[in-house]
Specification:
Largest sheet: 22 strands, antiparallel, barrel
Number of helices: 10
Distance between the termini: 39 Å
Strand content: over 45%
Mean pLDDT: 88
Low-confidence stretches: 1-27
Shape: globular
Radius of gyration: 29 Å
Length: 834
């Protein structure tokens, strides 16, 4: 790969400059994610995937989340707003290599931003991708290497750097509409981006509005029911239904379960019939960027953005897991003795949660260049603040004590939870509010310059320092925090910390065609202590069309603020109680999967996770316009912070399980500890070829990511390979993902066809289907640009309307971290340039 070719790949870094009496070509240096030193070659020491604006448009995606979920490197354990039952409802995060969102660093214009106010799964933090308007994005650079030596914490699996548009002159308006072939999930988007080049300044404004209606599970046969027994799976329907299960305990006899269900559903409730597959959401965001040159050596920049994301989540009506006794003399109790009622109170209505995330970001700074000892020094100083303020407003919830007061006062009949008066319902129906604010502020400065001349070229040095503060204040509903909301848990977290960092990087041309990168970062945290992380990388280009690279680095992940400062929280987990079932065979309250309460808490004695990353890659261009890339990686992540799974506690740690007098599980106690290790090995391969014919210009690309092993340890350090196990149970998810894209352009017409492949993978604990089947989907897009200043786009995502393959890990019926079950999506887009 020649230098000129590399520069072209970087996106047009080749510029023509006139000098005296001759014209020469000057290669402009650019800064690529993974280094603070600008360079000519796009292919550096570290593997970086660049998703350009053109790539984004050909994907047909309307959100940043959709773009990144399409990446083959995106592994198991990544969630979007389809995870309506999660603690971070409404958000979307990504998980490179399947290592979790808190081990993937997400940057905006090369800088950190505040994490989403709610942590996913109580402790897993990350940037909400929904808060970044796609219309403002110029490109996305994905560094597939450990980068703590450059960026600090969280960059264990890699870095996603979302780069916004700048230096834009003109006005572009876009409008997109779409709908699934099931007649739901209607989407509408309007985007405006306007920029103006002034004599010494450039100003840009971007506005983006997005609206999507809910997609329903009931509209899709494969997920319309939580009962998977017809597929050989579990019956995930709830034992709490509108036809109550009454437990009658006669003296000297075993308890008897009495139920009268005229629907024939065995007193089980199929909540999938009322749940959303993808919730309704509305988003709007505005962004302003200003660059001003004071002179040829000093410039100022400023960025200001605001985004609001509103998501409407719907849960089934409240189930009652209190197992309280109804007195024998209660007029609604027709059994003549005290009984327990296990019901779902449909007449109160479905639980509704309106989640609003307001994100603001302000960055300002100066940059420029000056001469020092005859050498040009590039420098930059910056300061910034970002905030994610999330509010969840709930309705149709039940106050436990007020509810049982109404039952005892004989105002509400729990034996017939569909026929009660509105006055009785309103006496205990409450609204809830959870609020959380996540903030991050920083001050930084860095400089780079050539420091000496070697026979093969100049040695470049970059130095910098950063001070950062971050905080979280997650306030639960006050009644819910005390366990006072029926069928619902609560979480709280409040804490802050600061960190001080110094870092340096050297780019050394060792000999001709051999470049070495040396980097290190020292960081001191106010809570857990200090870290020092080095990196060494080598790039060798023995021929114009061949390049090798290799690197080794260490990294770390600071404990997330919820892992440290989490107050005692109550969540509901679904596990199988084998101990209880053995003592009570056939009793549905012990046997099968049931929901139980779990207590979780933080740990202020946690240490940072540590990591080692190894990478080796080759880039080869055997003929013109054909490029092949292969990158091998290994990540060894130790001191991993985890909670032992609730199922594992029930199976192996009975001392952490609190049981009621009758033996049923009351609470499962859990907390975060440094306990585990995980080792991930794999490979990325990419091939790209372009050619011209009389019929048009063609392009063909193939990208694939393969996980060779995904080993995780137990509490005594024994490693087990979970490669190809479902991500929802701690595995890698699919071990192979690939994307093949064929494009054709001729004149005003363009067509793109993409095939997306996801391999099969194992699902432990399945009754019959021990494997989630592979999936192929096809996307088709047509673009017409023959109208003046106008571009029309029509497309089909999942054109053949493939269903997500069956998964029995939970009631969803499919694995939402690996697949999208909305089916075919039809869309059209208009872009007009003024």
């Amino acid at each position: 790969m020649s230098t000129a070719v590399a520069a072209a790949i970087s996106g047009g870094a080749l510029t023509s400059v006139a000098y005296a009496e001759e014209s020469v070509e000057k290669l402009e240096k650019i800064q690529v994610t993974g280094s603070r030193i600008s360079r000519v070659d796009a292919e550096g020491v570290a593997p970086v995937t660049v998703i350009t604006r053109e790539d984004i448009e050909k994907l047909g995606s309307t959100t940043v989340s959709d773009v990144l979920r399409n990446m083959t490197e995106n592994g198991g354990g990544n969630y979007n707003e389809a995870f309506t039952n999660g603690f971070a409802a409404g958000s979307a995060m990504t998980s490179l290599r399947g290592l979790g969102s808190s081990r993937t660093l997400t940057l905006l214009n090369g800088r950190r931003i505040a994490n989403y106010g709610f942590a996913q799964n109580v402790n897993d933090t990350g940037v909400d991708l929904n808060s970044i308007p796609l219309s403002a994005v110029e490109r996305i650079e994905v560094l597939k290497d450990g980068a703590s030596a450059i960026y600090g914490s969280d960059a264990i699996a890699g870095v996603i750097n979302i780069i916004l548009r700048k230096d834009f002159d003109g006005v572009v308006v876009t409008s997109t509409v779409g709908q699934t072939s099931e007649g739901d999930g209607e989407e509408g988007q309007v985007g405006v981006i306007a920029g103006k080049e002034l004599e010494n300044s450039n100003i840009l404004f971007s506005f983006d509005y997005f609206n999507r209606e809910a997609s329903l599970k009931s509209n899709r046969d494969n997920v319309a029911s939580a009962n998977h027994s017809d597929k050989g799976g579990y019956d995930w329907r709830s034992s709490r239904s509108p036809y109550p299960l009454v437990v009658v305990q006669e003296p000297g006899k075993d308890p008897v379960n009495v139920c009268n269900d005229p629907t024939g559903n065995d007193c089980r409730y199929d909540y999938n019939q009322v749940l959303d597959l993808m919730p309704a959401t509305e988003r709007f965001g505005a962004l302003t960027m200003l660059n001003h040159d004071f002179n040829e050596n000093v410039s100022a920049f400023a960025e200001l953005s605001f985004t609001r994301v509103e998501t409407n989540n719907r849960a089934a009506a409240t189930p009652d897991f209190e197992n309280r006794t109804i007195a024998a003399d209660n007029k609604f109790n027709t059994f003549g003795q005290p009984v327990q009622v296990r019901a779902r109170y449909l007449d109160v209505g479905p639980r509704l949660n309106d989640v609003t995330n307001d994100s603001i970001r302000v960055v300002t700074g100066l940059n420029g260049a000056f001469e020092f000892s005859g050498r040009d020094v590039d420098w930059e100083t910056a300061a910034g603040f970002s905030q994610s303020k999330v509010t969840s407003d709930g309705s149709n919830y039940i106050d436990i004590e007020k509810f049982y007061d109404a039952v005892e006062a004989e105002q509400y009949n729990p034996f017939a939870p569909t026929t009660n008066s509105q006055a009785a319902i309103d006496s205990f129906r409450v609204t809830t509010k959870r609020e959380s604010t996540s903030e991050m502020s920083f001050v930084s400065g860095n400089a780079s310059m050539p420091v000496m001349e070697l026979p093969a070229g100049e040695v470049y040095l970059a130095l910098g320092a950063e001070y950062r503060e971050e905080s979280i204040n997650d306030k639960p509903d006050p009644v819910g925090a005390q366990g006072g909301i029926l069928g619902s848990g609560g979480t709280s977290s409040k804490g802050s910390r600061n960190s001080k960092a110094m870092y340096g990087e050297l780019s050394i041309p060792v000999v001709e065609n051999v470049e070495m990168q040396l980097a290190a970062r020292f960081e001191k945290y106010s809570d857990f202590g200090t870290t020092l992380d080095p990196k060494v990388g080598v790039r060798w280009q023995p021929a114009d069309n061949l390049m090798f690279r290799a690197s080794y680095s260490t990294g770390f992940k600071a404990p997330t603020l919820p892992e440290v400062f989490l107050g005692e929280s109550i969540s509901y987990v679904r596990v199988t109680d084998d101990v209880g079932c053995e003592a009570n065979p056939g009793d549905p309250n012990f046997c099968g999967a049931n929901q139980y309460r779990q207590r979780s808490s933080g740990n202020k004695d946690l240490k940072a996770e540590e990591a080692e990353s190894f990478n080796f890659g080759v880039v080869y261009e055997p003929v013109d316009d054909l490029e092949l890339k292969l990158d091998l990686y290994k990540i060894r992540n130790t001191n991993v912070i985890e909670q032992i799974s609730a199922q594992r506690i029930v199976n192996e740690n009975p001392e952490l399980v609190e049981r009621r007098e009758d033996g049923r599980i009351d609470y499962i106690n859990n907390r975060y500890i440094n306990v585990a290790m995980q080792v991930v090995e794999g490979a990325d391969f990419e091939a790209g070829y372009s050619w011209e014919m009389d019929s048009g210009e063609f392009g063909l690309t193939y990208k694939t990511s393969y996980i060779h092993s995904f080993k995780k340890s137990n509490s005594v350090g024994e490693l087990t390979d979970y490669r190809g196990d479902a991500g929802g149970v701690g595995g890698s998810g699919p071990h192979l993902k690939s994307k093949t894209t064929l494009s054709w352009d001729r004149g005003d017409h363009g067509v793109t066809v993409a095939n997306n492949y996801t391999s099969s993978y194992k699902q432990p604990r399945a009754l019959v289907h021990t494997k989630v089947e592979r999936l192929n989907t096809i996307d088709i897009q047509y673009v017409y640009s023959g109208l003046e200043n106008t571009k029309l786009t029509f497309g089909l995502d999942n054109a053949t309307n493939k269903e997500a393959p069956f998964s029995d890990l939970d009631s969803e019926g499919y694995d939402m971290t690996a697949h999208d079950n909305r089916g075919r999506f039809v869309y059209g887009k208009v872009e007009y340039t003024f």
